[in-house]
Amino acid sequence: MNMTSKIVSMADAAARIQDGAVITVSSSSGLGCPDKILEAIGTRFDSEGHPRNLTTLHPIAAGDMYGIKGIDHLAKDGLLSTIIAGSYPSGPSNLPMPAIWQMLVENRVAAYNVPSGILFDMHRDVAARRPGVMTKVGLDTFVDPIRQGCAMNDVAADRPIVSRLELGGETWLHFPNIVPDVAIIRATTADERGNLTYEHEGAYLGGLEQAIAVRNHGGLVIAQVKRVTASGSLRPHDVRVPGHLVDLIVVDPDQRQTTETGYDPAISGEIMRPWSSFSLAEHGIEKVVARRAAMELKSGQTANLGFGISAMVPRVLLEAGQEQAVTWAIEQGATGGMPLTGFAFGCASNADAYMPSPQQFTYFQGGGFDVSFLSFLEIDLDGNVNVSKLGKKPYLTAGCGGFVDITANARKIVFSGLFEAGADLELTEDALKVRTPGKFTKMVDEVEHVTFSGRRAKELGQDVIYVTERCVIHLTDAGLVATEIMPGIDPARDIVDASKGRVRLANDLVEMPKALLSRGAMELSL
To answer: What Pfam families does its record include (predicted)?
Structure first.
């Protein structure tokens, strides 16, 4: 193969994909999404009827609901037969349901939700020709065959991809190898030999591991890049995927850095933003919850961060002048700095380092960090948490993502969310009052999907608390116990009755500090 023959058109690359292929895609929603080559595959199918019956692997979601279609380019009957994803495109209910979710709920594709870290582990074990992933991550959750075994619909449930094994007197989950035939990855620059650098990317994700898994089994590796440079012009230390692993290069000069962002050099660590340039959290109920969650931090800790209210915690520290008091670690790989919110979630500015996602997940799965800040959709009597499935509005959640990997061995977990959905709340600097109860409580008898197992947490001795606008709840052997109450809240009416008795009051119930309600900056001592 000569030096320039790796550079091909999108159509030529799509033409190389065979019927029945297993394709692994590197992406995290809009971040690092090789959207144009996915579009080319969908376009080829529309005109030729090929490739057919594809299986796709997505450690993190490909595409979003805001202009980067990603997996939706492939969400066509006949083209896609199976999808195994750590997460799926998600968004608000006022937007149309993504095509992949439509296929999922109508049983037109076998769909699985496998924790992101496990999916990266699967690639490494496939690459090394080991006998599949053996893990305790996911025990007693929807990942476990005693529940759904990762299946997201009926057609997937009929084709199990995980089993329980007893080894050495312990119970493990076993994920047999799924060998990918094609890897579709993304970078910023390729030289003519296929060496890839990531200088404009907000994360490395897992492209290297995915490419090795495919190369070691004689498959095809396609890299979408922004630009091509001459052979020998890239600094070897900057090359993240070496050219001998890459077969084809396709060029999209307009590829977005992430959702709704063409290019921001602070996201890729090329410049450092002044700390004063970051916006503070807007005053309101969610900020009050984030403030109370932040009180669980200690200076010098390393903390993991998830989507939702929890994503506001770094802004609470910023407002208090404590923006560098802890080190944040997020699953896309950024470590340190300021995790971003909104469309740029999954990215960080002023990061200390960018870890490849597979290594970040190894760190998470082993519980090396101090505390994790995550959100909840619903909590049940056993302390189980659901963030991965909502039957009535499935695409409001992305699935589990890295949630199961992160919580598996975390020493301490702080879940944040609102006690009820749709309650009319009055917030003043002195009190928070419930004017009108919500449509339904988020404290239920049994969650729809067990993304986090309260029972296993108690077995492992994990420290688990749930922070809401009304109270702080601890997971105890006696169930859910409210230990702190917000000023203005009626404990009997707004907690016990509102939860239908599912949350009990501690005998030594105390009031949270009024400073949480302040419109001004709250002094925060870590």
So the answer is: CoA_trans
pLDDT value at residue 287: 97
Please say whether the beta carbons of 290 and 313 come within 8 A: yes
User: Model pTM?
Assistant: 0.96
526 confidence band (pLDDT: 50, 70, 90): confident
pLDDT at residue 1, as a whole number: 43
Structure tokens at 111: 């769909």
Q: How many CB atoms lie within 10 A of CB 284?
A: 13
Catalytic site residue 331? yes
Active-site position among 192, 209, 331, 420? 331
- The amino acid sitting at 336 is G
**What is the 8-class DSSP label of residue 17?**
P
Is residue 243 a contact partner of residue 221, using CB atoms and an 8 Å limit? no
Angle at 450 between CA 447 and CA 456, to 5 degrees: 115
Q: Could you give the residue ranges of the DSSP H alpha helices within 116-275?
A: 116-127, 154-157, 207-215
Pairing mode, strands 338-339 and 348-349:
antiparallel
**pLDDT digit string, tens, across residues 216-235:** 999 999 999 999 999 999 99
Alpha-carbon span 195 to 232, nearest angstrom: 9
